[in-house]
Specification:
CATH class of the largest domain: Mainly Alpha
Strand content: 15-25%
Number of strands: 10
Radius of gyration: 20 Å
Keywords: ATP-binding, Kinase, Nucleotide-binding, Transferase
CATH topology of the largest domain: Transferase(Phosphotransferase), domain 1
InterPro entries: Kinase-like_dom_sf, Prot_kinase_dom, Ser-Thr/Tyr_kinase_cat_dom, Ser/Thr_Kinases-Pseudokinases
Shape: globular
Number of domains: 2
Low-confidence stretches: none
Protein name: Kinase-like domain-containing protein
CATH superfamily of the largest domain: Transferase(Phosphotransferase) domain 1
Distance between the termini: 63 Å
Number of helices: 10
Helix content: 25-40%
GO molecular function: ATP binding; protein serine/threonine kinase activity
Mean pLDDT: 88
Order of helices and strands: HEEEEHEEHHEEEEHHHHHH
Organism: Rhizophagus irregularis (strain DAOM 181602 / DAOM 197198 / MUCL 43194) (Arbuscular mycorrhizal fungus)
């Protein structure tokens, strides 16, 4: 793996930048910059007049690092995947690299949803963005395996004098190629329980996450987008730690799900429920998800008009 990294850098397949080019490097765990295995900092990059994100692994492992870099170099062509820019080294004499990414100016999806009151059009459009990013990965035979609202970031752009928000998938630290014989899939590390495939929750040492596991995670994300709430945030609210996690895991395995909020379009509710079905065979593939979301988006003007009429009558 080290040889691949050196080869890629030496042959300029990948850019490596001097660390002193980056200014005002700030780590902020409270803004989604702290994960289980990595830390992400924001930094100014004056020579390019842009802001970037720098990611390092908490316990640097060359194989894991190179695997994630390889995933990003494969998937750089989608606007719904966070753009990988290259590498840098905080310590020029050390072996630990940092990944350099485009900066998401509106933070991660969870923080973004809580910061603004969004209309249905924007919510469904963000859902489509995420589905398109996941479709791109699945076309490349990449399984993300850790898809949740903290691993989706939002960029704000101005398009034709209008403000547009674009959702992008990030953090390929757990991603694998579908065809890989992945021994690390049997570690029993669960991740974020509300977004984790119940089949994996039920048998983490032996069940291999697959594309339908990503679809399950997407179903929960659709619910969070529609509600602006973290899934199961009120579940056993007075309890914390392993006992709550154990109880929540048991409930999810036994088909316990969140309820959708009032005025969520019926076809959106139906789609998210199909995605989070306990039976992987009943979950749609990502192409079907995109087709359904496009249909939902096209029908939103009628839905909004109907909701407005209902609201006036109450």
């Amino acid at each position: 793996m080290t040889e691949w990294l050196n080869f890629a850098v030496n042959n300029r397949y990948m850019s490596i930048y001097p660390y002193n080019e980056f200014h005002n490097v700030k780590y902020n765990g409270n803004s989604g910059g702290e994960g289980r295995f990595s830390r992400v900092a924001s930094a100014e990059w004056p020579c390019t007049n842009r802001k970037v994100a720098l990611k390092n692994l908490k316990n640097f492992n060359v194989d894991k690092f190179v695997s994630e870099v390889q995933m990003h170099t494969q998937s750089h062509s989608s606007k719904n995947i966070v753009r990988f820019l290259g590498l840098t080294k905080e310590n020029e004499t050390g072996v630990s690299y940092l990944m350099v990414f485009e900066y998401a100016d509106r933070n991660n999806l969870r923080i973004f949803l809580k910061s603004l009151k969004l209309d249905l059009m924007i919510r469904v459009k963000l859902s489509l963005d995420i589905a398109k990013g996941l479709s791109y990965l699945h076309q490349l035979k990449i399984i993300h395996r850790d898809l949740h609202s903290n691993n989706i970031v939002i960029n704000q752009v101005h398009s034709c004098d209008q403000l547009e928000f674009i959702a992008k998938i990030t953090d390929f630290g757990s991603a694998i190629n579908e065809e890989d014989d992945d021994i690390n899939d049997k570690t029993g590390v669960i991740g974020q329980i509300p977004f984790t495939d119940p089949q994996y929750l039920n048998n983490p040492k032996h069940y291999r996450k697959n594309m339908k596991s990503d679809i399950y995670s997407l179903g929960v994300i659709l619910w969070e987008i529609s509600s602006s709430k973290a899934p199961f945030e009120n579940f056993m609210a007075d309890s914390r730690g392993e006992f709550r996690d154990l109880c929540l895991t048991f409930e999810i395995i036994n088909d316990y799900r969140e309820r959708h909020t009032l005025f969520t379009p019926e076809n959106f509710v139906k789609l998210s429920r199909q995605c989070w079905d306990n039976d992987p065979n009943k979950r749609p593939d990502i192409k079907t998800v995109i087709d359904d979301l496009n249909s939902i988006f096209a029908g939103l003007p009628q839905v909004l008009e109907r909701n407005a009429t209902i609201g006036k009558s109450h």
